[in-house]
Amino acid sequence: MIQFVCEIMCKTLEWYSGRLIRHADAILTKAANMLNKYQESKKSSVLLVAKIGGIYWWYHTLSHPAELTAGYYNTALRDGYDPVASMLSRHGAALHISCLEMMDSETPPTYHCSPERLLQQIWTVSKKRIVHLTGRNTNERFDKAGLWKIHANCYHPQAEAVRSFTYCRMNDKIFRAENWNNFVPFVRKMSKDL
């Protein structure tokens, strides 16, 4: 009985995840066709980018329930990002990721979070499928550790450099002396290296 339930669940998860990927494939096909028509006449290029959620809660479990709930059939035994990257690769589209400032040590242990292992998995599959990455931070970070973590993740030694980075959550706190003194060197380093 348990094996039967497991088989049904696996087939359901595969079906649901597959439907979402096919939907994204159809949307990207239409977008690519429209852009190709425009680009032929204007001699310019536009990069298609698909944004995925950085769902790192419960990543340190076998089943990765948060990702399953969102439609990513990604478990400890199945790479759910490979079919996504494969589909993006067919369209020459990039993958937009978040969590670039996050560290496992800063997440609540109760929820078995691992933004760092999630990013590692995405870097691995993007390198395998030759998919460019773009990214952003998730949380407001002005501290040196968070900003340098962003830089380290944008220039990860095992993956291609992130093509573009968007700094999110900018507000008036950035102009406080301690934050400004961290942010300016970060921007200079990012603009020099990117």
What would a concise description of this structure say?
The chain is of the alpha/beta class and 194 residues long. It is built from six helices and four strands; from the N terminus they run αβααβαβαβα. β3 (133-136), α5 and β4 (164-166) form a beta-alpha-beta unit.
The percentage helix is 40-55%
How much β-strand is present in the residues? 5-15%
**Helix segment count?**
6
> What is the rounded Rg?
19 Å
Placed side by side, the strands forming the largest sheet appear as 1-2-3-4
The ordered H/E elements are HEHHEHEHEH
Q: Give the low-pLDDT segments.
A: none
Sketch the major β-sheet: 4 strands, parallel
Structural class: alpha/beta
**Span between termini:** 54 Å
Mean pLDDT, to the nearest integer, reads: 91
From the spread of the alpha carbons, the general shape counts as flat
Query: What's the β-strand tally?
Result: 4
Task: Describe the protein in words.
There is one protein chain. With 194 residues, the chain is an alpha/beta fold. A four-stranded parallel sheet has the order 1-2-3-4, with helices on one face. Helix 5 links the parallel strand 3 and strand 4. Helix 1 packs parallel to helix 3 and helix 5 runs parallel beside helix 6. The chain is flat and about 60 Å long.
Would you spell out the secondary-structure blueprint of this structure?
Layout: H1 2-42, E1 49-51, H2 65-70, H3 81-91, E2 94-97, H4 115-129, E3 133-136, H5 144-154, E4 164-166, H6 177-193
Parallel strand pairs: 1-2, 2-3, 3-4
Helix pairs in contact: 1-3, 3-4, 5-6
